[in-house]
């Protein structure tokens, strides 16, 4: 009973300890923190999906961590319509900034660190999602 109450309390502040039962969940912050959204099919553009923590342009260029349900796989893309650099993801990624990209540079927050990092943090704009 106490454990259940703890999970409920953590859920209320946005921390997701369990991950998705199907598909892929994106999180606005690293370590599966902040606002999150579960996807079970292809998403050609993340622009139209609003999230409280993602005020730029929906979920576009917003995700900083992601979880993949057992038996599922995602291919994430730098641009909308499955264009640009891509990354195959078949297990949880607690911090997308640890994954280098050839060309991912957020369109907003163009500071020196973003320009030299080129990581998948705040970069995903579309995804293909399916059972693996
Ligand atoms: Ca992007």
Task: Explain the overall architecture.
- It is built from 2 helices and 6 strands.
- By secondary structure, the protein is an alpha+beta fold.
- It has a single domain, classed as Gamma-B Crystallin, domain 1 (Sandwich), CATH 2.60.20.
- A hairpin with a 3-residue loop joins strand 1 and strand 2.
- The chain is globular.
- The chain binds calcium ion (CA).
- The site of calcium ion has 5 residues, from strand 4.
Quick rundown:
The protein is built from two helices and six strands; from the N terminus they run αβββββαβ.
Give the bound compounds: calcium ion
The name CATH uses for the topology is Gamma-B Crystallin, domain 1
Q: Give start-end ranges of low-pLDDT stretches.
A: 5-13
Mean pLDDT: 82
Given the helix and strand composition, which structural class is it? alpha+beta
How large is the radius of gyration?
15 Å
Question: How do the helices and strands line up, and which of them pair or pack?
Answer:
Blueprint: H1 2-12, E1 24-29, E2 33-39, E3 65-68, E4 72-79, E5 83-89, H2 112-117, E6 126-131
Antiparallel strand pairs: 1-2, 1-3, 4-5, 4-6
The structure holds calcium ion (CA).
Calcium ion (CA) is lined by residues 61, 78-79, 123, 125.
